[in-house]
Specification:
The protein has about 425 residues and is of the alpha/beta class. The protein folds into 2 domains: about 5-95 and about 205-425, Adenylosuccinate Synthetase, subunit A, domain 3 (Adenylosuccinate Synthetase, Chain A, domain 3, Alpha-Beta Complex), CATH 3.90.170.10; about 105-200, Adenylosuccinate Synthetase, subunit A, domain 2. Helix content is about 30%, strand content about 20%. It has helices spanning about 15-25, 75-90, 110-120, 135-140, 160-175, 185-200, 205-215, 250, 285-295, 315-325, 360-365, 395-405, and strands at about 5-10, 30, 40-45, 50, 65-70, 75, 100, 105, 200-205, 220, 260-270, 270-275, 305-310, 310, 325-330, 340-350, 355, 370-375, 410-415, 420-425. The strands form 5 sheets. A 10-stranded mixed sheet has the order 9-7-5-2-10-1-11-15-19-20, sandwiched between helices. Strands 14, 16, 17 and 18 form a 4-stranded mixed sheet that branches. A two-stranded antiparallel sheet has the order 3-4. The longest helix has 18 residues, at about 160-175. The radius of gyration is 22 Å and the shape is globular. The model has no long low-confidence stretch (mean pLDDT about 95). Bound molecules: guanosine-5'-diphosphate, 6-O-phosphoryl inosine monophosphate and magnesium ion (MG). Guanosine-5'-diphosphate (GDP) binds near residues 14, 40, 44 and 334.
Length: about 425
């Protein structure tokens, strides 16, 4: 199938980067369509670990075309750093492999300042954002006051544009937040530098995709964050500021919905969440601690410890609906080795009543208690397993159980961070 969208089915960090890197081997084009450098996608090849925040996870494969769509918000300083880092590691030979949409919005220095200031004013109710300026950048996009990547291609007018918007932001910073102002001339000089360094990557991503798809090329869309962090469908307001569900692939890259062939949801074999917000199957005990240590559950972007808990099959059924999942991929199954029994949340109980649907409001959600089912665990290491049959029978049964409860076939199972530590049941591009 030529166009596959891969999205996180939980609260992010499901191992999207690892699986995109794995399947990019058979793809021609890899596309980011939303989010920004709040994402941290970890790729491990032959013991070498690379974390990408903006550049699509296909970049480690030579010759793959990597596209950043209009739905992404771009911090040019971070992008320059990432390009340099990949180049130093020998992964960025051909400059033409990366194209950034003219229409992508820029994260400006005031967005970072506003993100941090807004979080510190919220005190205990803070969202726990990554502090990368994501929310304020998307807010400006919707308020129609944002700067876009194509503005970098007009260096004559760029300083004037920056002066105008910095004057407005400074008024807010100084008068409302009582923060020091930014120096507009410094920001303008900094961005003229990015214009020189990054201007050559600008292009029309939608048009390139039309050409590539027209020639039968295989395209993999790489989601960032996860379904439960979606601005509309997630646990609002403890969410990110973009649509993270599969539908955003269309608006965030400029393709039509009928061009999508498969929608793959990625889920860990358990659940994690970074930052604030409700998390019904969270474990605040030794088992949660064990998952964190064994799973290396520390943020790839901020280094914060991730909150850990059992799998939430009720949440995954919701993710199936709002994404239209055709396939599920389960990661980090190896981390469950030695835990016996394994528990899974299968429903939510609210004040003694079973909920039929994922609740829309935070108050109800925070009062929900999961209804559990238990499954037998296993003690064998899974890291060397490369086929479903080679998994210990309880691990096979666990995967089959998830498939049945969520109602989506499992297409792949990841048993370690390395590219090759993957069991493929149905290859998205080879079936
Ligand atoms: P992403 O944001 O969805 O790309 O996920 P992250 O990279 O933030 O977090 C996933 C973490 O789990 C990374 O450290 C990966 O190297 C690691 N990882 C991915 N898949 C597996 C797996 O199957 N087993 C183990 N043990 N680690 C994995
Ligand atoms: P990847 O792509 C996990 C979380 C933050 C915070 C909330 C809002 O690596 O899965 P933001 O900075 O976006 O305004 O923060 O969203 N968050 C993520 N959690 N993985 C991510 O990305 C995330 N990106 C944002 O922790 O709770
Ligand atoms: Mg991550």
């Amino acid at each position: 199938m030529p166009l596959v969208v891969l999205v996180g089915a939980q609260w992010g960090d499901e191992g999207k980067g690892k699986l995109v890197d794995h399947f990019a081997g058979e793809a021609d084009v890899v596309v980011r369509f939303q989010g920004g450098n709040n994402a941290g996608h970890t790729l491990v090849v032959d013991d070498d670990q690379v974390i990408v925040h903006l550049i699509p996870s296909g970049i480690l494969h030579p010759k793959k075309l990597c596209l950043i769509g209009n739905g992404v918000v771009i911090d040019p300083a971070v992008l320059c750093g990432e390009i340099e880092e990949l180049r130093a590691k020998g992964y960025f030979g051909d400059e033409k492999r990366l194209v950034i949409s003219f229409r992508a919005h820029l994260i400006m220095p005031y967005h970072r300042r506003l993100d941090l200031a807004s979080e510190s004013r919220k005190g205990e109710n803070k969202i726990g954002t990554t502090g990368r300026g994501i929310g304020p950048a998307y807010a400006d996009k919707m308020s129609r006051t944002g700067l876009r990547f194509h503005h970098l291609l007009d260096p004559e007018r760029l300083p004037e544009r920056i002066r105008a918007v910095v004057a407005e932001k400074n008024a807010f910073l100084e008068q409302v937040l009582e923060e020091p102002p930014l120096d507009a001339e410094e920001v303008a000089a900094e961005f003229l530098g990015y214009a020189q360094r990054l201007g050559g990557y600008a292009g029309d991503v939608s048009r390139i995709l039309e050409e590539e798809l027209g020639q039968g090329r295989k395209v993999l869309f790489e989601g960032a964050q996860g379904t439960m962090l979606d601005i509309d469908h997630g646990t609002y307001p403890f969410v990110t500021s973009s649509n993270t569900v599969a539908g955003a692939a269309c608006t965030g890259a400029g393709i039509g919905p009928r061009q999508i062939d498969q929608v793959v949801g990625i889920s860990k074999a358990y659940t994690t969440r970074v930052g604030g917000g409700p998390f019904p199957t969270e474990l605040k005990d030794e088992t949660g601690e064990r998952l964190r240590e064994r799973g290396g559950e520390y943020g790839a972007t901020t280094g914060r410890p991730r909150r850990c808990g059992w799998l939430d099959a009720f949440g995954l059924r919701y993710a199936r609906r709002v994404n239209g999942l055709t396939d599920l991929m389960i990661t980090k199954l190896d981390v469950l080795t030695g835990l016996n029994p394994i528990r899974v949340g299968v429903g939510y109980r609210h004040r003694g009543r079973m909920l039929e649907d994922y609740p829309p409001d935070l108050e109800t959600l925070s009062e929900c208690e999961p209804v559990w089912e238990e499954l037998p665990g296993w003690d064998e290491s899974l890291r060397a397993c490369r086929s479903f049959a080679s998994l210990p029978p309880p691990a096979q049964a666990y995967v089959k159980w998830i498939e049945q409860k969520v109602g989506v076939p499992v297409a792949a199972i990841s048993v370690g961070p390395e590219r090759e530590e993957t069991i493929v049941l149905r290859h998205p591009f080879l079936s």
